[in-house]
Amino acid sequence: MKNFLLFCLLFVIQQATAQKLAVPYYATSEVKFYDISNAPADLLGTLNTTVSGISYKPNCVAFYNNEMFVGYDEPSADGFLHYKGVVVSAGSVTYTSVVKVLTGRVTTEIAVNPANGILYVACGFGDSKRRVLKMARDGLGTYGSSTGVFQNTPVAKNSQTYSGMGGITRNASGDIFVTDLSDNRILKWSGDNTLAQPTQFLCSTDANSILCNDVFSNTDNQSAKLFSLPEGLALDANGNLWFANNNDGYSPSIDVNGGSLVKLRSNLISQNLAGSRITIANVEATIYSKAGAKFGGLCRIGNFVYASDQGNGKVWKFDPSDGSFTDIGISATYPGNGQCAEPSASIFPSFTIVSCAYPNFGGTVVRLGNQTSVSIRASIDVDAPGDITINVSGTNFSGTATQNFENVGLQTMFINVNYDGLGTAGTKTLNISSPSPNVGTCSLTVPVYDSFFTFGDCESSLIDGTFTQNVAATHNITLLITVTKAGTTTFNVISQEFSGSLTTSLTLGQTSVIIPITYTPTNSGNTSETLTIASNEASGAYPTLPGFCYKSIQLLVPNLPCPELLTLPLDDASATLINSGNRNYSAQKIVANNSEITGSAKVVFSAEKSVILMPGFNAGNQAVFTAQISNCPNNNPPAANMYIQGRDLFDSNHQKFVPIGINYPTDYWQFSGNNEYIDEFDKTGANTARIVWFQNSVPGTSHTDADLNTLITKFSAKKIVSVVTLWNGYINDPNQLNSPNGYAAWWTNPTRVSMLNAHKKYLIINIINELGFGRGFAYDSNIPSDVTAFTNWKDQYKTAITTIRNAGLKVPLMIDAPIGGTSLKVINLAAAELLAHDPEHNIIFSVHAYWAEDDQTSEINTAVNNNVPLIFGELANKQLGADDWNTVPATGYSECYYGIDGTTIEHSAPSGFNYKSLLPTLKSNAIGWLGWEWLNDGCSARNFTTNGNFSTLTTFGSDMVNNASYGMKNIAIKSNAF
Question: 687 with 655, same domain?
């Protein structure tokens, strides 16, 4: 049946110079829309006719305003699809709703009365289902049932009413024309709605049958069939009726010339004699044949007829004046068939409203009681040049604008909207629309303000601190105001380098308000700044502008911090002796008296620190000379303790300090003895020791505060910074941090606080080792339980920070990453929040690079870019296996499970991570690190030494100490703040 009916609706509308065409595609269940102004045609959009999982095969389409009717031909087909709100724009086809209208039969074509939306539906096939239905439209614009059936009135052939309904069309008078395919005739009903017996146009008749003889010739004067399975119908501009011969094998009489388009003269078809048979003579018909054609639907557009051709797989543009066929570049291997339709141009809107905005910064302030106007900005996507009208409506607001657009594409249109000054204060919604249908809408809000206070003399306002040039800081400013009635307002601070905002409720008679202001340096040469402080509820000199005032701020010029003090590991820096040989000296200033360079020595100077060469300098071969290395002048008084600035750590003398050192275990000996390894430790050149300490000592060892004091003191004598880290096993539960006898409580014991503060110039507190959701955990922000755990981890640390700071400890606090110390990803997520919580802003974050299974090196750039103070608190060459994280098998477990140094004792690292590749990255970014560990580790290969003595450095220890590129002996710089 599909091959018998070839139904292709071609609908076209003319909008300016653009002509549009829609083609239903049976095989792919699609309706495609084309612009046929030029050849080849341009595809404008495609609609898939699959509805509720059913792939409907479209035969035809018809239109009424912005509604589309799609008939389909399938064995179980019943009725047609009714789409509402159809819009073709920006390459897509949209609609607001679609329903299936039941008719009890297959729909082959649909004709529409454009005045009222009444449908005339040609239905077939099957003896009991051949119909032409008239379907009226109800008040809701729906079609529920037929209001008339054209049936059983034509003279039957072979005891059938119709063999099969094909094309259907309607003229301006309301007459209905229908093709009867196999019976080779055209039926006409008058448009008087009486459903009278039709007029029949026939080749010739014989008794009760219809017979077509080969008595006609086509335009090539070849013998041609007048009727050869007639399908599509169209009326041209002169009132002539055109029909298409499909010439399919179903036809009882095939035309060897192929399918044809046939014109019946208007004087013939204007006859309207009910029940009569009108035999068509040669003079009344003109036949245009096309080889191989199987014509289906016809549609007239202007002076042309467009015809679908299943046989050649094309849609042709046919010129009735000369009988020519033009290929317009639309291929349709199995198009449907359908009548012409001239739908509303609104299906193809000339523009679309994309968005709208109210420029409420720098724009007009709307105030209650003040008639004014505001400018609304609308973004318009223009498809066709021309005038565009936009309307704006809202309570107490109205406006309209018309603008001519000569160019297509995204354009901007401004609409002046008037406010009548009435109503109430608050947020008002404005709706933006157009009288042009189906172009979209948008809405926005406009605040209406009520003035209820004025600013005092802002220049005399006090700030509770000073701002230093290029040093970020936040202070409070107290503004003088006069409040005339209670209300809520927002103060905004505007300037190049200062910002601030405060939303607050003011009370009648209030005379001042305190606003936090933040200085964020962006211009290193800036020495002063003028703040604009504004509020929309403040009365001012201009009723359509925010009330505002000015405050001048002078930035203090800071004391320049000292540059880094670089020691020379190959020489004796403490004695200022520099051995002979090649040297590169960096200096901000070089002062040399009576000095000369001879022999093999080579000295190169560049700016970084001050070097003063003493009199008598002689750098001859094998010579020894003396030099004095001094800090730059510094007027800043020493700080009380080390501190964080940006992402860098500074010592109390304001020298940048990069911690490079080793983890130092304490649970293996008594501190009352003299068997510490500090002298041996110092030979490495390390500037930092991470002291592993226990809240509750390991049995058989001493861990008193006096012991800890002794250890820190001995390290300080070697100019080694102590990082004291509390170790009480592997911690999964962050709630232990703030429990009554928890880790925060241990740090804040008053006696212990006093002891720690005695060393505050060279002390860092590592609050607790590796706290928070254990190894093997993979944080996922999309999993609620993970988010809950992450939030609790942050909150517990916030509480601990507050507790420790309130106890009087101001030194840097080190916070280990969760997930066994490994997750730099989580640190990057939490760092800003935790830093902001600390009133000292003195926190450094520690990561333990056990990354055999998850290499997070890429996260370092994120940390650097986000100014995260960072140290790698544990850096090793071997790593415990994943299966051993949470349990210890009876047979023991392997601390050396993964090799993360490029060698393999047991297993290689799945991620490919190698600490040797990490260290150059840390060096280039001035990020510190602490190797694991000095001795007595569970994996002997992971020890720095075999017995605690420097002379017994392991392969790993020697690499970490002596490597020419990253070894601590060559890169560690000690602080001079002891």
Answer: yes
